[in-house]
Amino acid sequence: MYGMLLESVQHFVQLEYGEFVWRQALLTTGCKNTVFNTHQVQSANTFSNRPMLYPDNLIPDLAAALSAITGKPFDEFMIFFGRCFVRFFSNFGYDELIKATGRYFCDFLHSVDNIHLQMRFTYRKMKSPSMQLTEVDENGAVLVYRSTRTGFSKYLRGQLLEIAKQLYGMDVSIKVLESQNDIPGGTSGPIATQGGLKTVIVKYRLDFDNREYMQRRVHIKAHPSQLQLTPVNSKMLLNLFPFALILNEEMKITAVGEKLIESWMLNNVNRSPMELIGAKVTEHFKLRRPSGITFTWENIKRLQTVLFEIQLLKGSSAKGSKDSSKVVDTQTALSQVDTSSSTEDAAKIITSIPRRGSQGLRSILLKGEMRYIKDINSLVFLCSPLINNLEELREMGLYLNDLNPHGLSREMVFSGFSHYSRLDLMCEREEQRAEELETSLALADSWKRQGDELLYSMIPRSIAERLREGQNPHETCQSFEEVTVLFAEVQETITGDDSIKYAMTTVNTLNAAFSAFDELIHSPMAYKVETVGKVYMAVSGAPDINPFHAQHMADLALDMLQSIRQLNLPGVGVKIGFHSGPIVAGIVGLKVPRYCLFGDTVNTASRMESSGETDCIQVSGYTAQKLQKLGYVLSYRGKVAVKGKGDMETFWLQGPPMKKK
Predict the structure, then answer these.
(1) The Guanylate cyclase domain covers which part of the protein (predicted)?
(2) pTM of the full predicted structure?
(3) Which of 106, 471, 566, 597 is least surrounded by CB atoms within 10 angstroms?
């Protein structure tokens, strides 16, 4: 899926529902892209050589996520996304392309497939659906939609509604007449029994004022001046269009242009040209576009305004005969063939056409319109080969003189050849710029993640998210009924005369100890508040409420003591103390803001640490009661004088709960 579709969704969801809702939708769908590249089907992964595609299911998933967030129906969001795309592509000038297709909305509906065909040159990997009008009247039209993707029929409805309103100034009502294989919310059609995907087919009835279009239609009846023209032999038509096909009502080939016969012979060097005239068209040609329809008289006659692409099928390869004694000139042979000739006579004449046998030729793709000729009750395919440059011309076994003498076929091949290298260079530059943009975006995401990590190291994630949403920092102040606050102070018994050397040793010691403590902090069980000098401060129960705060802090204290012992630093120990009670917490400061704790509980916890002993954990009597109920091993220390509190009973925490046998 191209990024433009997702860009349109992102822009208008942010515009109408806000940034917060859009971020929630991305989080719900698991989409990690914050920016989508307009002309890319894929976004490059900076850390891998493998591309990551924009998945087709992302739009239905976003619609489902937004439906869950806002409470609005899923179908309403799919229609909204379709409208968003039309509004968005107007910024690229594609609205002018649509308006140029015709004066009326019905002209556009006739030309949808042609527009998709032309857009393939800009969006080379586009997998466009196929749409054809099957009925047209003064009150509207019937449109048949075919696609291999499911779940996008509502998306198309939104596009049609917005195009009619914005570009043609009319209101349209749309209802579904028939639907096959369209699974709501899906993105790939059901699997057919013979393999591959079943085609999604949806028939819409579009009701709108179509009277003016019907009144101005031309060629419904022949003008009297046209009836006075003398008949023209079909040989003249085949001379003008050397790749033309004429088909009768049974979809059998009755006449073929000179160059098309030669091309058929080049691609079927082991088969007789007698097989071509009078054969079913599907035996030798494959309908490429419009996709999803069968090659029948009724379908083709109904789609005379649609561009067709037909591929010449290749037969078994074999070396052609080099005996030229029995060969006559192609033009001479064809001059004997017209639509009045019998099928058998035409086939006999064609067998005399010379072969320019070649192997490994590229398949020829013919592009043009199917026109109904009432006088001979036949369909004529007025076409020319689809060739971009001289290299493709050579690969098809053709020459410039083989192309239509009128029109711009030859000029386009020359133009394609002269501009091919320049266009190729431009494409390479654009691809390089796209890769550079993707790399820049990936770096921006990486820098954002690093910035987030730095921010979360200063203030809690939950508080940071609230500040991002625009909450005033003063509103982050919050009271907690009960938490457990811990202080741990690193102790050093070895000193030296060299103050600078001693300071460096202290820094290394503190870095090793505090880094080990950081590894033990796991949110939401505990949160590191700050380090001041040799003191490490942590809390459990804030900013995330935790009913097991005393238990988690006891486990953290025991792990801290064990980690210091495992570091095996000479002369280094740790004093730890903690206490439980109420606090008030909030963000303090604008530059280097910090999450700070206030209250008597903080002071008491600090006294538990300062009045303790090295490599011991001292807890208050209140906290000890909680831990004893949980089975932790504690021993009574006695009463300790605490500044501002008097004598307090304290305990030593000696181990975790004893395991029951």
Answers:
(1) 484-609
(2) 0.48
(3) 566
